[in-house]
Amino acid sequence: MDSVTPHEFRETLARWASGVTVVTAxxxxxxxxxxxxxxxxxxxxxxxxxxxxxxxxxxxxxxxEAPGFAVHILGADQDDMSALFxxxxxxxxxxxxxxxxxYDVPLLPAGxxxxxxxxxxxxxxxxxxxxxxxxxxxxxMGTDPLLYCNRTYGxxxxxxxxxx
Length: 164
Known about the structure:
The chain is mainly β. The longest helix is centred in the first third of the chain and has 8 residues, at 6-13. A hairpin with a 4-residue loop joins strand 4 and strand 5. Helix content is 13%, strand content 43%. The radius of gyration is 16 Å and the shape is globular.
């Protein structure tokens, strides 16, 4: 049986609601980063996460070759940050104060949480690289997450909170 077309696949997966992350690293002394919706926990022992990086993304090389990276789980009021980091271009970091974390990763203002990871492994996955990181540091902010579904941003309904 043949696979579905890329268009059919993209349209179907657009209906999957997910959180939104920005992944950052430092490569060649320069900060690199991109918005990534394909993020997931992978293992508790050891603590591993994965993020899928499109091979043609401008930040691909910098993210997959860095010794470590940060995953910023965006809050409900950070859709502007998501949109900025979803676009190609070198000046993504100009509008944000960022600290330097372990592995010299740029740490942006986080909404829900921030994870700093040591690069554990990379795997090829079609037109993406699966970047696996061992979590070495976490920081919780306690706000509601930014959601993305059907090519639009959303929030948790009023009266319902993801914060504990």
